[in-house]
């Protein structure tokens, strides 16, 4: 969704003044996208909804700190949702401390011929099957573009542990996607329905 700077400024200024209409407009504008972000990071809908609600509370409490020159409003809200989701999940996670020295970031981990047959929703479904810690690192790195340094700082793990989880996620996803004929069939059915 695109907001002009003027629209964003009006919403932010209204929220700073505790204007209920501005707060409602901001909430409605970002509701679906930010709830989806929470679903990507948390294992069940109840936790995702809790993170979403806590995240929006943090947004309204700290909106006066948003700086237009440092990024767009949606990106700022997204980071709050990601970090709130991680905070809820962190206590439950047990990170494997194995490290890898392999250069896994540069290799193609899923065949393009498999990817072109799949819908994004199908891939997300398989990502949800990864162990929680591995899924979290994969989402932060691949989907949201955080560096291993940023991931290690946020999750209190070493960069090597972050790299290991990313390599593990890629390895497991490759197997899940390449051996899942039913998934390719399901995606083909979706493709036919769209036509």
Q: Give me the strand/helix succession.
A: HHHHHHHHHH
Helix content: 55-70%
Shape descriptor: elongated
Total beta-strand segments: 0
Any overview of this molecule?
This protein has 195 residues and is mainly α. The protein has 2 domains: 5-90, Rna Polymerase Sigma Factor, Chain: A, CATH 1.10.1740.10; 112-194, Winged helix-like DNA-binding domain superfamily/Winged helix DNA-binding domain (Arc Repressor Mutant, subunit A, Orthogonal Bundle), CATH 1.10.10. Helices cover 70% and strands 0% of the residues. It has 10 helices and no strands.
Summarize the structure.
The protein has ten helices and no strands. The chain has helices at 5-16, 20-41, 45-62, 73-90, 112-115, 120-127, 132-143, 148-155, 159-178, 181-194.
């Amino acid at each position: 969704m695109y907001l002009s700077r003027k629209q964003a400024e009006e919403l932010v200024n209204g929220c700073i003044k505790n204007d209920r209409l501005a707060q409602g407009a901001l909430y409605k504008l970002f509701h679906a996208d930010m709830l989806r972000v929470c679903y990507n990071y948390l294992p069940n809908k109840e936790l995702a909804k809790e993170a979403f609600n806590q995240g929006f509370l943090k947004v309204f409490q700290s909106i006066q700190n948003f700086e237009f020159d440092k990024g767009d409003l949606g990106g700022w809200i997204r980071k709050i949702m990601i970090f709130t989701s991680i905070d809820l999940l962190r206590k439950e996670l047990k990170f494997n401390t194995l490290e890898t020295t392999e250069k896994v970031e540069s290799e193609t981990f899923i065949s393009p011929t498999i990817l072109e047959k799949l819908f994004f929703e199908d891939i997300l479904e398989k990502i949800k099957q990864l162990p929680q810690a591995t899924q979290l690192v994969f989402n932060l790195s691949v989907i949201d573009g955080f560096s291993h340094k940023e991931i290690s700082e946020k999750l209190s793990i070493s960069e090597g542990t972050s790299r290991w989880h990313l390599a593990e996620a890629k390895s497991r996803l490759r197997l899940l996607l390449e051996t899942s004929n039913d998934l390719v069939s399901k995606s083909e059915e979706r493709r036919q329905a769209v036509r």
